[in-house]
Design goal:
The chain has one domain. It contains 19 helices and no strands. Helix 2 (36-74) packs parallel to helix 10 (263-298), helix 12 (331-339) crosses helix 18 (478-503) and helix 14 (363-377) runs parallel beside helix 16 (409-433). The relative contact order is 0.12. The protein has helices at residues 3-32, 36-74, 77-104, 106-113, 120-133, 136-152, 157-180, 185-214, 227-257, 263-298, 302-329, 331-339, 346-360, 363-377, 383-407, 409-433, 441-467, 478-503, 508-517. The chain is mainly alpha-helical.
C-alpha cells in the first residue's frame, strides 16, 4: 500500500478516534468543568503521558523502527523477531521498575510537578488520581511497542484504532456521571480515572491480538545485553534525551500554569482541540513515513526516499495550514459548541478559545516537526534532533516565564507556538545543508499558494462568524449553533479547495486519483 493510501487509512482511524475524543471531552467538560477537580485530573493524566511519550512513542519508536525495518529488509523473519524480543524485554523491565518507583514516591514527585497547588485537598486528589492512572503508562508503552511492529509490517489498522477503544470506555463512564450531575467533582474524577485505566488495558489487548494474528509476537524474557541491544541504546538514549527535553517543556508549562486555578484545565481543553488536526496529519504522516523512509534507505533507494518526504511535506501543509487558519478564525464558536454546557460556562469558553488561537498558528510547525524528524531518525541520527529540541525548549520556557504574568494561559500557548516554529526551522535548515531536503521550484510555488489560500479562507470564516454572532451567543440553542458551525466550516473548506484548484497549488482531480490508486 502506498504512502497516500497508508496516510488515508491511518488518518481516517485517527479522525474517528478524535471524534470519539471530542464526545469524551465534551462530557468531561460538562462533568468536571474548569476547577480544582478538573485541574487535578488533567495533571494526573498528563503525568503518565509524559513518560509514555518519552519511553514508548519517543525512544522506542525512534530507535526501534529503523533497526527493525533494516532487519526485515536484510535478514530473515526469525532474526527480526529475535531482535524485537530482545529490545522489548528491556522496555518491559524499564517500565515495570519505573511504575513501582513512581507509585512509592508519588507524593514528593507530584509536589514538584504541581508545585503551584497550594490547596492540600486539591494536591491530595492529584496524587490519588495519579496513583490510579500511572499503570496506564505500562499498558500504553507496550501497546506502542506492539504498534511499532505492526506499522513496520505495514499493518496500521489496530494501532490507529486502539485510541477509539479508550474513548469509548471513557464515554461509557462519563454518560452516567453527566446524567447524575454529581456535586462532588472529586468523586466524578475518581470514576473517570478508573475508566481511563480500564481503557488502557482494552487498548493493549486489541493491539496484542493483532500482533498474534500477524504471527509476529516477540517473546519477552530476561533482558540480556548484546551488540544489537547496545546499538539500540546508542540510538535510544539521544531519543530519550530528545523526548526528555520535550517533556521537561511540558512539565515546566504545567508547573507555571499550576499557580493559577483553572489554567491547567484551560490549556488541556485547548490542547485537545488542536490535537485533532495534529493527530490526523502529523502523527499519521509520521507513523507512515518513518518505516517507509527506513526501508527505502536500508535498501539504497534514495530517490524513492526523497519522493516520499516531498509528498509527505506537501500533503501535510495542504491540510495543516487550513486547519490552523480555521481554528484561529473560529476558535470561540468551536469551543462554545463542543464544550459549553453543565459546569463549563461562557467565561470558560472565552479562556479556552484564547489559548486555542495561541496554539493554532503553531499547528503547521508541530506537523513539520513530525514530517522532518523521520529524515534524521531513518538515517539513525537521533543526536541532531535532540540538540534542536533542547534549544526550542529553552526558548519555550523563557518566553513562558516572560509572558505568563501578563497573558496567563495565552502566554504559555504562544510560547509553545514560537518554540515549535524554531524547532521546525532548525530541522529544515540542517536537512537542507546535508542535501536531504531540497524543495523544487514547483513545490515552493505550491506551498506559497497553499499559505495564501489558507489565509483567504480564514478571512472568509472570520467574516461569516461575525455575521452569525447572535447564533453563537451564550445560551443560544445547541443544535442551531452546531448546524451553523458545520455550514460555515463546509463553506470554508469549499472555498479553500476551490482556491487550491484555481491557483494550481493542487489539482483536486489529481489528488483524488492518487488517493484512489495509492500512488
Amino acid at each position: 500500500m502506498s504512502l497516500y493510501r497508508n496516510f488515508l487509512s491511518v488518518g481516517g482511524l485517527i479522525l474517528l478516534s478524535r471524534i470519539a475524543g471530542f464526545v469524551r471531552d465534551a462530557l468531561m467538560a460538562s462533568v468536571l468543568g474548569i476547577g480544582p477537580a478538573a485541574d487535578a485530573f488533567n495533571a494526573a493524566f498528563r503525568f503518565p503521558n509524559l513518560f509514555r511519550r518519552l519511553f514508548a512513542e519517543g525512544a522506542f519508536n525512534t530507535a526501534f523502527v529503523p533497526m527493525f525495518s533494516s532487519a526485515l529488509e536484510t535478514q530473515s523473519l526469525d532474526e527480526a523477531r529475535l531482535l524485537a524480543s530482545r529490545i522489548m524485554s528491556w522496555l518491559f523491565v524499564a517500565i515495570a521498575v519505573l511504575t513501582i518507583l513512581a507509585e512509592i514516591f508519588m507524593e514528593p514527585v507530584m509536589a514538584v510537578f504541581v508545585s503551584g497547588f497550594d490547596d492540600p485537598e486539591k494536591f491530595a486528589l492529584t496524587v490519588f488520581l495519579t496513583r490510579i492512572m500511572f499503570p496506564y503508562l505500562a499498558c500504553m508503552s507496550l501497546m506502542a511497542a506492539y504498534g511499532a511492529i505492526l506499522n513496520t509490517l505495514g499493518r496500521f489498522f489496530a494501532a490507529a484504532f486502539a485510541p477509539v477503544i479508550l474513548n469509548i470506555v471513557n464515554i461509557a463512564a462519563l454518560v452516567p456521571l453527566a446524567i447524575l450531575a454529581l456535586e462532588n467533582k472529586a468523586d466524578a474524577a475518581f470514576w473517570v480515572a478508573i475508566a481511563t485505566m480500564l481503557g488502557g488495558v482494552a487498548q493493549l489487548a486489541l493491539v496484542y491480538g493483532a500482533v498474534r494474528r500477524s504471527g509476529f509476537v516477540p517473546r519477552i524474557g530476561l533482558p540480556r545485553p548484546n551488540a544489537e541491544v547496545r546499538r539500540f541504546w546508542l540510538l535510544a538514549i539521544p531519543a530519550i534525551l530528545t523526548g526528555g527535553i520535550t517533556q521537561i517543556n511540558i512539565l515546566m508549562g504545567t508547573v507555571i500554569a499550576s499557580s493559577i486555578d483553572g489554567t491547567i484545565s484551560i490549556l488541556g481543553y485547548a490542547d485537545r482541540l488542536y490535537q485533532l488536526p495534529l493527530g490526523i496529519i502529523g502523527i499519521a504522516i509520521g507513523t507512515v513515513l518513518l518505516p517507509e523512509l527506513s526501508r527505502h534507505l536500508s535498501a539504497g533507494r534514495n530517490v524513492e526516499a526523497a519522493q516520499s518526504q516531498d509528498q509527505s511535506l506537501l500533503l501535510s501543509m495542504l491540510l495543516s495550514m487550513p486547519a490552523a487558519a480555521a481554528l484561529a478564525a473560529m476558535a470561540l464558536p468551536i469551543v462554545r459548541v463542543l464544550f459549553e454546557r453543565g459546569a463549563f460556562d461562557a467565561a470558560a469558553s472565552v479562556s479556552v478559545a484564547e489559548a486555542l488561537v495561541g496554539y493554532a498558528w503553531g499547528l503547521p510547525a508541530f506537523v513539520l516537526v513530525r514530517v522532518l524528524q523521520p529524515s534524521f531518525f531513518s538515517r539513525k541520527d537521533t543526536v541532531t534532533p535532540t540538540v534542536f529540541a533542547g534549544i526550542s525548549v529553552l526558548v519555550n520556557i523563557g518566553i513562558s516565564l516572560w509572558l505568563f504574568p501578563s497573558l496567563h494561559h495565552v502566554g504559555i500557548a504562544l510560547a509553545t507556538t514560537i518554540s515549535s516554529w524554531l524547532n521546525a526551522g532548525l530541522l529544515a535548515i540542517f536537512l537542507a545543508r546535508r542535501g536531504y531536503f531540497v524543495l523544487p521550484a514547483t513545490s515552493v510555488r505550491k506551498h506559497v499558494l497553499t499559505i495564501l489560500s489558507s489565509l483567504a479562507m480564514a478571512g472568509v470564516l472570520y467574516l461569516l462568524g461575525r455575521r452569525a454572532a447572535a447564533i453563537f451567543a451564550p445560551g443560544a440553542p445547541f443544535l442551531l449553533q452546531a448546524a451553523a458551525l458545520f455550514a460555515i466550516c463546509v463553506f470554508g473548506a469549499a472555498t479553500y479547495f476551490t482556491l487550491l484548484h484555481i491557483t494550481g497549488a493542487q489539482s483536486m482531480g489529481l489528488l483524488l486519483r492518487r488517493l484512489r490508486r495509492g500512488s
